[in-house]
Amino acid sequence: MPSPLIDRISIELGAQEPWPKDVKLFQPYEVEQILLPDNANCLAVQAFLKMCNLEFQVEPRANAEDMSPTGKVPFIKVVRFVTAELEGIVQFVNGKDISLTDKLDNEQKSDLRAYMSLIKNVIEVAELYYCWNDRETYNEVTSVRNGSVYPWPLNHIKNIEKKHQVVKKLKVLDWYHKTIEEVHQEVQSCCEALNVRLDNKPYFFAEGPTELDALVFGHLFTILTTPLTRKDLAKIVRRYPPLIDLVKRIEIDYFKKESEHF
């Protein structure tokens, strides 16, 4: 297994090369397999790369999670270098002197990191809770989609393994025993904080879109457009029109389409 030092040196060497045109972004199959939190993170990375005007091609793989160096999706392959998750991909891109935050001062960068951490620690965890800890959602959506690309009985084994992994994480974060109402309150508090920070501006910072906008887009767009047995998360998000406007703006400006879901 490569050491962290070797991984860091490889990333630094890869960052010194120009951005090629055949970059691949690997993720699970979108229609039949991908789940709410993974879809959100994949969309966030796509939005970030588009904001940076960087070319890439989406490559769906049934075993994308197993292929990833961190065990999480998405990940990108740039020539011989592989980098996973938004934080790592942002760092890789920044190493090529491409940055969406170079005009921000230190206080703004600190705010950006704080709000990104808030999203990861609240919105994403709530998505995991919904998918794996809400019985109705698990039985009708999660177990079907997560196991869809595997034959029986491997599909059941994969579901059991993943559920055990997520439940362990929820317990560590003290979310496993939360009621659904408590989860909703956490999400609402997070959306309220994001709404206040956005303050009716086009983006979170006047200087333009950043990886924070990309991350918010990924999660809120996915919550708003993913069919689930419960619609409570989408109802919470819809209480904040400025956040909805942000999602619409990014979809139109960077994905060149306007959704019918809003």
UniProtKB/TrEMBL annotation:
InterPro entries in the record, alphabetically?
Glutathione-S-Trfase_C_sf (IPR036282), Metaxin_GST (IPR033468), Mito_Protein_Transport_Metaxin (IPR050931), Thioredoxin-like_fold (IPR012336)
Q: Which SUPFAM superfamilies match?
A: GST C-terminal domain-like (SSF47616)
Name of one Pfam family that matches: GST_C_6
**Which GO cellular component terms are attached?**
SAM complex
Under which name does UniProt file this protein? Metaxin glutathione S-transferase domain-containing protein
In what residue span(s) does the Metaxin glutathione S-transferase domain sit?
188-250
- Supply the source organism for this entry: Dendroctonus ponderosae (Mountain pine beetle)
Tell me where in this chain the Thioredoxin-like fold domain is found: 40-136
GO BP term (any one): mitochondrion organization
The source's domain of life comes to Eukaryota
